[in-house]
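Notes to self, Aminopeptidase N:
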Amino acid sequence: NTTIYLKEYQVPDFLISQVDLEFVLSPDNTRVKSRLKVTRNGAHDRALTLCGEKLTLISVAINDESVAADAYEQTDMSLKLPAVPNEFELVIETEIAPQQNTELSGLYRSSGNYCTQCEAEGFRRITYFLDRPDVLAEYRVRIVAPKAACPVLLSNGNPVAQGDGPDGLHWAQWHDPHPKPSYLFALVAGDLQFIEDQFTTMSGRDVALKIYTQSAYINKCAHAMASLKRSMAWDERVYGREYDLDIYNIVAVDDFNMGAMENKGLNVFNTKYVLADTDTATDADYEAVESVIAHEYFHNWSGNRVTCRDWFQLSLKEGFTVFRDQEYSADLGSRAVKRIQDVQVLRAFQFKEDSGPMAHPIRPDSYQEINNFYTATVYQKGAEVIRMLHRLLGADAFRRGTDLYFADFDGQAVTTEDFVHALERASGVDLTQFRRWYSQAGTPIIKVEQHFGDGVLTLSLQQSCPDTPGQTDKLPFHMPIEVALFSPDGKKLVAQTLSFNQAEQQFRFDNLACKPVVSVLRYFSAPVKLEYKQSNADRLHLIKYEDDGFVRWESMQQLCLAMIQPALTTGELDPRAYQRVRDAFEALMTDPNPSDKAVLAEMLTLPPAAYIAELASRVDPAAISAVRDRCIERLAKDLEKYFHALYADNNTALDTDAQSLAARRMLKNRALFYLVETGQTAYYALASHQYHAASNMTDRLAAFTALVQSHYPDRDALISDFYETWQHEPLVLDKWFAIQAMRPSSEALREVEDLLHHSDFTLTNPNRVRSVLGAFSGNLAGFHRLDGKGYALLVDYVIKLDQINPQIAARLVSSLNSWRRFTEPYASRMRTELARLNMVSQLSSDVREVVSKALS
Ligand code: B3K
Ligand code: ZN
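result:
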């Protein structure tokens, strides 16, 4: 594998300003004719080298003159034309086989329809090109296909013309007036239905909105359409960004490597993030659709109009766009719950990445396979970095900064430095030190100490950041630390943002009548690990009086961790620590005026096993599961009557708005989970009744999950019933697979082996692979076994999958990355399997990079 370095970036030797593409579609031999307007960039005499992979070259012509085969050099990866004019027209004909494309990168078929995925480097699998994001061109596309099989022909931009041809063929032409990099190219053709709506932009232009999918799914697109219109309005209101074409198309397909893709004017989506109706989608699914629709829409400005110079700058568009979609969702629903959930994702995935062999800054310095760098670090930590900028500058200056950024760089491919500099120029804030967030990897650790005397509180903050591969001795970061002080009777005395930018720093608060309770890192204002020996009394005080839901939840998590962590080594639950959690749960459940029911549901949830593992110095998966399970069981039994009351109180449809109803369902189903954990027949019956009587998938799935992951005696029959009912709904069937694969017990392995042989399992559909192997690899109790058989199974399948879809294979194998952090015999067994994988000679560059870094 070759490594590519940011420091070696060079501007392209040639530019392409116009692209004319003609596709004659056919499953095994699609003809692609590409007519490019090429100009030499600067004074040099270097050859023109185009990228190309898995292409059959048919012909090359320069200025209408055919180029003989001995006048160019062709490799598996490139086409080199040695002596070309300074300005010329290049015509290249190639042939490709979409039907054989199982990597789902480039032009491929999903359920018989044609679609594309070009980010990051898929366009080179369609035609020879300067496939890099700093080459921007205007595209015209003509698609020819059989009218019967492909009545719908779509590409980027606006439709120009269409017509019928001979032999049952028809054609369509599209024009995208906005210059774009090749990664934003898209083509879709097939037998698709659509729903349609329209949006009038703030300047009064009408935009036609269409969502396409296969006919079986067409009645599940209304929520996505409503989400799209809300996103368009939000981006006008909050960022002043207006849509810029006459038409916005979304296509939902079954087979897709990621969630969705922001191709200009033609987003292609995984069905998982478009389809939703109450029968088949949970409340969480509705929220996921809303946020991914928004995310891809927001990319129209943060990504498409202003794009990345090179792939090291990926967080320029992804971190910023995730921040934008997170804020959109926060504005729409409960801000506190959104923040809690986003922090949970960050801790579960990004912190883990940051402490492992693939740790990288949000702007990586190097990569082997760019597909491996669509990471939680680039996306989620990238969003946290933008969030800190937003907080340090304030909303108004931040908006002035983004306005300046969009105005100055419209139509260009730029860097994270350009973004930060625009914010600096607009706000006057010096961000020199802040830039370290872009170059230093690792999760900073902040130690907090407090001292009180003579009416003065001194907060001492210390920061450090662990070494990461290739990076030692890190310099202090600049970060906002949100702090508030509460009086003994619960009044908020002070709330302010501390600008923390040194290794050690003290902050004074004067004129305090008595010792306050300190709340630190409110709103999770920086992506750090806090080491703060707070007293349990203070935690309880904050649970009671904080108005920031994040801190209330976090304080409850800390109380739980104080119960769980010591027990991991002693094997015993400290009775006082347990009693504190028990009493806090009781107090929460008997609070006559719970502020936010969804926050309450989160507060009644123990820290996830993955987070407990992340915090441990050595991970003992068996101990973590055993302790966590014991806590759940005891809480369930001791607080049974409260959970039952909570269930009953919230098992009604009193609220009229969708959000309160969803919060009620969340709380009720949390209670149901504990009730089932008591193991009492009456609660099995209650859950079974809820499963059968449910009017929506949220309630049905919650009951199903609780029962399937418990010792419910009729478990097998329930699993069969669910299958019989939902086998024809792929997205629901994915849940059925995943819930079994996540069974928190050593039984999971045997079940997963069966699921892998199920007639509905396939390695060619990424969602299905994730729902079995992805879910299993995240199952702490089931995957990590003393005999190492979970790891062996995963590696067996990674080897198979690597032949089909290397991107997905590489994602799966990264679940073994953290092997060094595990106790024996787990660590050795994980390493053994990685070593076995590394011995396979025919590995993709994707898997090779992950496995070699994991072992190094
Ligand atoms: N930009 C795409 C990611 C495509 C990744 C391909 N390996 C989705 C998104 O972040 O919106
Ligand atoms: Zn994105």
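- The two ends are 14 Å apart (CA to CA).
- Residues 1-191 form a domain with the Immunoglobulin-like fold (CATH 2.60.40.1730).
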